[in-house]
Structure formats: structure tokens, C-alpha cells
Amino acid sequence: MDGSTLTLAGVLSALAPLVISLINRPSWSKSVKQLVAIAASVVLGVVALALTGGFTGGDDVATVLLAVVGAAQSAYALVWKPSGVAPKLERATSRDRYDLAA
């Protein structure tokens, strides 16, 4: 596996929870939020592979994608959730915060 692929995948994984927080909504169920997180992480893994030529360089695509998903979940659990940044970003960018029924 190419070092540049892993480096870019690592950087994107660390920032993935912030991107995911822009998409997720507080009112969504936990399972929907998890699906969004996995899908967004896979997309970021594909971006890392595409930008570094990983699809043609013989990188193990499944390994890179699984690493991005796992690292993004770890970054969320260890950094972004405890710091409160990701949850605050999710609430701040959610239309759900406006009670349109009232």
C-alpha cells in the first residue's frame, strides 16, 4: 500500500466526523446516523484512493475503506464527541433546531 494513500486516508478519517456532523440531524435515529457515517467514510476513502492513484497502484481497496471507516469512528469517539464539537456542529447546521410547527 502506498504511504500517500494511507496518509491522506488518515487525514480524511480524522476530519470525517466533522463532515458527517454537517449531514446528520439530531432527530435522526442512531441507526440512520451510523449509516450516514459509514457511507460518508466510504466516500472519503474512495476520494483518498482516487487522488493518490490507489485504484491503479495495487492498493488493497477494501483495507483502505475499512481503515477509513474504523479510524473515522475512533476519531469521533475519542476526540470530536467528547470535545462537544461534533454534536454542536450537528445541532447548529440542523433545520430541526427550528420548530416550524410552533
From TrEMBL:
Swiss-Prot/TrEMBL keywords: Membrane, Transmembrane, Transmembrane helix
UniProt protein name: Uncharacterized protein
Protein origin, superkingdom: Bacteria
Membrane-traversing stretches: 6-23, 35-55, 61-79
